[in-house]
Every structure is written in structure tokens, then in C-alpha cells.
Amino acid sequence: MKLSQAHTQKNSLKPHLKRQWVIPPRKSAAFVWRMEEVLDLYEEPYDEKRPVVCFDERPCQLIGESVRDPLPMKPGPIERFDSEYERGGVCWVLMSFEPLSGWREVVLTERRRKREFAHSMRRLVEERVIRKPRRSG
What we know:
Layout: H1 3-6, H2 29-43, E1 54-66, E2 85-98, E3 103-109, H3 114-129
Antiparallel strand pairs: 1-2, 2-3
């Protein structure tokens, strides 16, 4: 057995595989109850008069092409290129959606301020939810 083979045996550790979940705070029945209420909401049938409307926001990094040309190809090895890329700043993604009807709207903004959030909320209420009774909860 070669020395390199002796140190390359398989093991049960797989750090590249990850699983994620939410661990509720200790002794927090209120947290679990609220989470179950949200999940139950998605199981209700669609009601146009009482829409389930969700909103989410996240930053998005704008990236361009690689700043350096790849090395010329040669027979045998795969293409080699530098991982450095052109940075184009960031934008903010605001998404509104009704999961039970399939409707969704995405708005991109240059900044994350209260003003952009308020405009999105106003547009959502005035154009999508207005004159529909609120969910009691």
C-alpha cells in the first residue's frame, strides 16, 4: 500500500453536506404555536376576499464577468480562469406574493431605506389588498 493511499481512507465525516433548520428557543411554547399558525395559514383554501399576502426583502450583489481573460486552452486540461470578477455594487430585492393564488411582484431598489419599504407597502395595499377585509388573528 502506498503512503498516499493509507491517508485517504473514507470516513463518515462529510463537511460539505449541510442540513439547516430552526431550533426554537428553550421553553418557548409561544414560538412553536406562532410557527404552527403560519404553517396552518398556507393550508387554508384560497379566498379572494381574505388574501394571504407575504412580503420579503434581501440584498443582491451585482457582479459582472471575470476581469481577466481565461488562459488559452490546450489539449487535455480543462479551461482555466481567474475567479476575480467585476463588482457592480448591490441592490435591494423587495418581493410581494400571494402563495395561494400564484401572484407575485418583484421590485429592485438601489438602497434599503424606510422610504423604499413604505412605498412597497403602500403599493401592495392600494393595488392588491385594498377593500378586502383583514384577516383576524
